Amino acid sequence: MTSRHVFLLACLGLTLVAAGCENDDVFPPTPPRYAGGAMFARYVSFGNSITAGIQSFGLSDSTQRLAYPVLLARAMGTPFNYPSLNNPGCPPP
Predict the structure, then answer these.
(1) DSSP character string of 33-93
(2) HEC-encoded secondary structure of 71-86
(3) For 58, phi and psi rounded to 5 degrees?
(4) How many CA atoms lie within 13 A of 24 on its CB side?
(5) Which of 2, 22, 36, 80 stands 20 to 30 A from 91 (CA)?
(6) What are the angstrom distances between the C-alpha of 65 and each of 82, 84, 88?
(7) pTM for the full model?
(8) Cα distances (angstroms) measured from residue 61 to each of 16, 43, 79, 80
(9) 37 — alpha (psi -120 to 50), left (phi > 0) or beta?
(10) How far apart are CA 6 and CA 88, in angstroms?
């Protein structure tokens, strides 16, 4: 490779680097508009034993009422129904 080729490749590289340093803040992304009203009109939860409210290898209505989906729905002000177990529920083995 001659020194002229090296010089041209260096110029090309510097040009590409300079082109890559463009300011991306010229067109900032606009956030979606919120029309107001109920943002959490519906809440659905599915998951594993933690979602069901199993504590100490057992499941009952008292542990289901403390499961995170119920607490989250209560914090959001959204109605949330769950299949409640009658006493004694599913006691630990």
Answers:
(1) PP--S-S-S------SHHHHT-BTTBB-HHHHTTSHHHHHHHHHT------PPPTT-B---
(2) HHHHHHCCCCCCCCCC
(3) -135, 160
(4) 3
(5) 80
(6) 9, 9, 14
(7) 0.53
(8) 64, 20, 17, 14
(9) left
(10) 82
List the one residue out of 83, 84, 46 whose CA is nearest residue 68: 46
Tokens of 4: 């002229």
d(CA 60, CA 5): 78
Q: Which residues partner with 90 through β-bridges?
A: 59
Q: What is the pLDDT of residues 10-68, one digit of tens each?
A: 998 888 887 777 666 666 777 777 666 666 777 888 888 888 888 888 888 888 888 99
